[in-house]
Amino acid sequence: MAEAKWYVVHTYSGYENKVKANIEKSIQNLHLEDQILDVQVPMQNVMEVKNGQKKSVQKKLFPGYVLLHMIMNDETWYVVRNTRGVTGFVGPESKPVPLTEAEMAPLGISSEKVQIDYEVGDAVRVVSGAWEETVGIIRSINQAKQSVTIGVEMFGRETAVEISVLDIRRM
After folding, report:
1. Are residues 94 and 37 in contact, defined by beta-carbon separation less than 8 angstroms?
2. What average pLDDT score do residues 31-52 get?
């Protein structure tokens, strides 16, 4: 099987998050989770001063571009290329050219895989992110995306939440 690499897609300006959402929806609908592994809109924290107040806001690092970690083949190329808001892949004559590890390093994105030593049924605590301090049971493990889906109690019922393996600890 071919190796997944990072590619850059050009989008209409301001449509980056919409393109990301549309690609993620296509991944789910067409069951391409094992071929298109990650979709990212790189962001950076910037200090802005408005009305004399300093405020930290997130800005897009590359407006008009979305990063994709995927296995390039005819099917994945077609799905991404025909997503609403995508104008094409970055590369000569719109031929996709993968980014090198050296180009990915400054973005804080590495393709280094962490060995997942959790199992379905393990109780874990979320240690960072929006779900910090939440306790849940692992329902599924996605080795390719380096994430787990945990069941958390919310409003009296269990809800599935996908969390990076770097954000959880065993209970």
Report:
1. no
2. 85
* One-letter amino acid of 167: D
Q: Is the separation of the CB atoms in 101 and 4 below 8 Å?
A: no
What's the pTM value of the predicted model, to 2 decimals?
0.62
Measured distance between the N- and C-terminal CA atoms of the chain, rounded to whole angstroms: 36
**CB burial of residue 9 (10 Å; 0-12, 13-18, 19+):** buried
Under DSSP, the state recorded for 12 is -
- Render pLDDT for 118-170 as a digit per residue (tens, 0 to 9): 888 989 998 877 788 889 999 988 876 778 899 988 888 888 888 888 788 88
